[in-house]
Amino acid sequence: MTVDFAGIKVDNVTLAKAIKKLEEFVAAGTPHLIVTPNPEMIVGSQDDAMLKQILNNADLRLPDGISMVVVSRILGKPLKERVSGIDFLLEATKDKKYKIFLLGSAEDVVKKAAEKLGAAGYHHGYFKEDQAVISEIKKVRPDILFAGLGGGRQEKWLAKYLKELNVPVCMGVGGSLDVVSGIKKRAPVWIQKLYIEWLYRLIMEPWRWKRQLALPKFLWYSFTRWKRRSKI
Fold this sequence. Notes:
With 232 residues, this protein is α/β, with parallel strands linked by helices. The chain has 13 helices and 8 strands. It has one domain.
């Protein structure tokens, strides 16, 4: 089952179900793309046909945003829960049963993240030659490739080279590597449970205020499209 947010289909899954799908993808051995649509990415896709197509055609689309859960309830198609990219990453790597490769962030950041997760390989995100990075990934032959190249860029890069990489699971994780490395701290659990993690990030990083403007746009796009469909 999927829920539509302004033309972007999101899978109505729990974290447990998403991890089950991951296991199936790895077992299949063929390339799969997992994306994490959030309000900012959904707003960006409204003027980016390529990104919209990539998100909708991905093999698994995680509902990465508590505002999406709230909106889905108002629209009458409630999401089971929020499944954030970082929660999925941490759950997928906690038993260290998969060989993983990390791509993104600065050299020292991704190195620390790789050490903590026991990654088989890693590469920073400030590269210019795609093929050199691709060759490095293919040498490792990971089960999962986590790319933290920033929303939009990481999805396009993974989609472009999905078949060439031939990694069973490729997933964009945004700034998660910064958190895993310890460079940035995630909001305390009690703040996460109150669904105000976005506010914590804004207080800690006030320069993010422009990114937060995506939320009212997301609400506008979602409800406008819903009203149009309801009239048909």
